Structure formats: structure tokens, C-alpha cells
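Task 17 of the worksheet. Students: predict the tertiary structure of the chain below and write it out as C-alpha cells. Keep your answer in the requested format; marks are given for formatting as well as content.
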Amino acid sequence: MTRRFVVFCLGLLSLAASAHAVNYTNQVLQIGVGARALGMGGAYVAIADDSTATYWNPAGLTSIQHMEVAAVQQGQESAPLALGTNDVGSEYFFMSGGMTLPNIGSLGVAIMRFGVDGIPQIPACPTCSANSAPPAQIGTFGTSDWAYLLGYGKEVFKALDLGITAKYLTGGTTGLQADSTTGITGNASYNYMGADIGAIVKFGAMTPYLEGLNFGINVQDAVNSGVKWSNTALSPDETVSQNAKSGIAYSLPFEFLKANHTTFTIAADIDPEYSTLIHYGAEIWYKETLAFRGGMRQFTDGLQSNETSIGASFKLYILEVDYAYIDYELTPIQYLSMLIRF
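Model answer:
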């Protein structure tokens, strides 16, 4: 039975690879959260074991022992993109918390913001030719996205954890001037509600021969309202498709690693939203104090170069500090996380 169950889960992984989903209109939830997960290339669906599981896979909230709080800050390595006299830079912030309630389950909450400010606003010029001087800039504007997440996880069986995350997203533009040439009347905004459903299967709880092997799946937007726009030319309602992210993680069960209180984990996720994006990651923890990791995101459609990442962690008593460096195609970005467990 165990062997058939493994084959079944691998089949789910393959099905997820062949699925196709429409990208979010608002990209805030595509960035990823937590320096640890990002340092592993985002291969975290089957690993998620802290409060960031509210984002990655709510079933992982069951791994929270008591209570914890985490915060993540993004820092760009290069200077902001210069457009004329304006500098356009992005700001990213994520904070999460989680706690376990005996006989009830585990709860997680998270808030995330991503914004871009200083974008030049230039009016359209239907009568201008290719050789004409561009119209004068009429101002600058910004965009921002906010995401609010509430998750719940519960151990259903010894080898199976399930979870759900409800999420609300809102955002739009600020400082946008009315422009009759483009039909812009002011700031646009949107709202979105949805829910993710996740599961983690721990094969080691079934048989010692599969110790350290986990399978995870997170069906993003399993139910959702669609994206509802307001104060735009058409104010459309945009459909958001389901996206089944799935992955496998394996912590090597070697005795010499256990004797040195060391764990070595490899993981791979499949994300069909990008037709198809594959995440690879590896992590080693030494004496539960110091960790090093690396990862890669591979875009199989060939439209974007592979992105590599590295990271490290230091843990002391209740404090854990995680760092990640991601070589994005446009510009490298660094992330710093701080996690406190009570």
C-alpha cells in the first residue's frame, strides 16, 4: 500500500506540471516570502515548517511547536532604475506569526506589501511621430499591493497534515493624474478574495524505509472571487485560475548526520503557473545552529533565464536569522529574515 501511495503522489506531481493557470493580475504573491525558502529557490511546499507556511503551504503550520513571529525585508543590490530625472525603486515587506493550540490545530497570520514609487507619468500623444519629442511629464505615481492571509493547519492522521489559507488582496495606483488623452480619470484600485488548500504527506510516519521523505501540494486559489477593478476605463472582473504547486523533500537519514546533529535536505517543486517553473533547493543544518543552502528556479518555456540563489542561517535559542541572495534576471536582490520562537 505504501508503494502505491508513493506512486500516486508522484502522479499528482506530474499532473501539476501539465496544468496551466493564468498569472495573477497583481504579482505580489509571486515574489515568495522568507529568506530561508527563497534561498532554496522557492522549493518549500513540502518543507514549510514555520509561520511562512501560511503562504507556502498551510498544512505546514502543524510544525509550529508553540508560538513564533517572523519578518522579512528586501534589499536591492543595485541602485534603483533611473528614468530621466526620476528613480523608480521597489519596496517589499512581509510579516507572519503562528501558534499551535492543543487539540484544535495551528493558526497562522501574515501581511505582505509590495510597492513601486516614482514612476513617471507621460501623457499619450496620438499625433506625435517617431521623430517628435516626447510629451512633457505631468507627474509621478506609484503602485502598491497589500496581501492579508489567515491560515489553519491540522494533523488529520499521523502521516497527513491538511491546511487552508484565506487571503484578501487589495491595491492600485496612488498619485496618478487625470489624463484625457488616455482616458485616465484618477487612481485605479482592485480587490480580491480567495483560498489556498494544502496537504503534506510524511512517508516516514508510514514506514522507516521512507524516513525523511515528504510530499506537499498547495492548490492556490482553489476558490476565489476573481480580481475586481474599479475606476478604470472598463473596470473589469478578471478570472484567476487555480494553480497546483507541488513538491517533494527528502532529508537524508544517515546515522553519521544524526550523530553530529546535522540534517541535509534536498527538495524540488513544480509550479505550473509559469508553464512550467521548477524550483530546486538544498539545505544543510549543522548542530541545529548554522545552515547553508542554495537553489535554482528553472523556466522550462525558455523565455527567461534560470535564476540561482544562495543563503545562510544562524539560530541561537529563540532567535533565527536567515539571509538569501537571489540572482534575478533583471537585478540581484537580497532578503533578510528574523524569526523568533517562544
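Marker's comment: The mean pLDDT is 83. The helical segments are 2-18, 35-39, 53-56, 255-259.
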